[in-house]
Amino acid sequence: xxxxxxxxxxxxxxxxxxxxxxxxxxxxxxxxxxxxxxxxxxxxxxxxxxxxxxxxxxxxxxxxxxxxxxxxxxxxxxxxxxxxxxxxxxxxxxxxxxxxxxxxxxxxxxxxxxxxxxxxxxxxxxxxxxxxxxxxxxxxxxxxxxxxxxxxxxxxxxxxxxxxxxxxxxxxxxxxxxx
Length: 179
Known about the structure:
The chain is of the alpha+beta class. Among the domains are: 35-73; 75-108. Helices cover 51% and strands 16% of the residues. The protein contains 3 helices and 6 strands, in the order αββββαββα. It has helices at 2-29, 76-107, 147-178, and strands at residues 38-43, 46-51, 57-63, 67-72, 132-133, 140-141. A hairpin with a 2-residue loop joins strand 1 and strand 2 (46-51).
């Protein structure tokens, strides 16, 4: 019995020393407090992997028969920073162009001399004229609506009537179905 247990005890001792030696090597290669380069978080269809050194994010999924594969997640922050930089540069160019235009405008002679005393009359094509008072009579004449105005009014009334009839039909169907 002692011969059978000796090789078993020997192999266990060798395995313990080997594992102990590897953990010592691993402890030497990583500083205290660092868990590893990647931080993994489970999601519904795989794992999200964060590279703690570079900040890159990847999503890892188990393909059907192909094994695990990781794909980089697009970095929206970098795209936003690039767009902000482009807009800031464009803004600076616009400021310099605006200053040039202001300088050109200041260098020109004024084209208008003097102030315009009265504002120009405004005309409103939709404004109706004042009701006219007939000569010799004290009656007020009210202009009749145009054919276009009448067509618009008739169209509105037809649409309102159709909607009212449709609503009544829906109510009748609802009441019929509940009785």
